[in-house]
Specification:
6% strand; two-stranded antiparallel sheet; mainly alpha; 394 residues; single chain; 14 helices
Amino acid sequence: MSTRTLPLLFINLGGEMLYILDQRLRAQNIPADKAKKVSTVAAWIEEDRKRVMNDIITTMFNKKFLEELFKPQELYSKKALRTVFDRLAHASIMRLNQASMDKLYDLMTMAFKYQVLLCPRPKDILLVSFNHMDAIKDFVKDAPTILGQVDETYQQLIEMYTPLSNGDFQLIRQTLLIFFQDMHIRVSIFLKDKVQNSNGRFVLPTSGPVPRGTQIPGLIRIFSCAGEELTRLQFHNGGNYSSALREGSFEIFGDRVTKLGTNMYSVSRPVETHMSGTSKSSAQHTKVNAAPNPLAKEELNLLARLMGGLEVQKPGSADTGFRVNLFATDEEEEEALISRPDELSYGVINIQATKDQQANAELAKIMEEFTEPGDQSTSGSSKGDDLLAMMDGL
């Protein structure tokens, strides 16, 4: 597996999350009693939307956060990554209940999975990432400080990934596909466009432009030992291929050429997720491995480093927050919550770099989920103690 995959996975999933939240915040209805208190409802909606987007993007591109993210490392478990995005989605005054958070994460993962599958060549994954970054820059174009954070990340992406070989990008692509291979959630946009089957698997096209640097299939050339062309044979390629498109730009500003990674929610249409198959049981949904994770300590160290220094919204603050529903009605959201698989029943974990008892209890609870009872480090202290000691030093 590639040790350079995590930053691309995080940025692309984060970009998809921002697309979805932006669409839902724009579509969110304002209750009549709240509308009466605001002179201009449209202005209130826009102000709140920008605040939520700015808060999430500020957290997403936190300098300390990205320093840890860009260090070469293996991908961590789906549960650990999901915890990071739970924390990120609640970095503002917006609140999602568990059913809506499940739906949000399903939409994020399936959208990026489809983009990875459609990339004509592995290196185009970087262009997809730049499309997400371009859209994120547009979200914060009126906030110079946050825009500077995004530009710094752009430079890191260019410095780290543009020198990589085609073989390196192929390994990154394989690592991403391994991560997504058991996820088969049906999404209404994909079903309506007939790019996804009823079992949640994608339908890949056999037509369109070929990857840059390749020729349209249909010709076999036979050469002699001296390198002279002897004969040519034509064959039916089974598709309707065209010549490769021009090269997309790998600079901060430029035409990416590919549309993969752009906002597919810009056109207003309903987006629903469905469990594949006839049952909503965990057998058809993405499963979280209940067995002890051999990378438990490393995963928790990563989460602690990434989230330890981030600001946590205090319940007693003046802003009580407002709820965003990713379902059409509250009834649909409640029904999805009731039918939620048991293995997904974990809440948002807030990790603070403090020495209070509440933080210690939260981390101890997480350690119980990831490690076997009695699992001790070589020094004789528990892994939880090691993690707490490390966090106290942040």
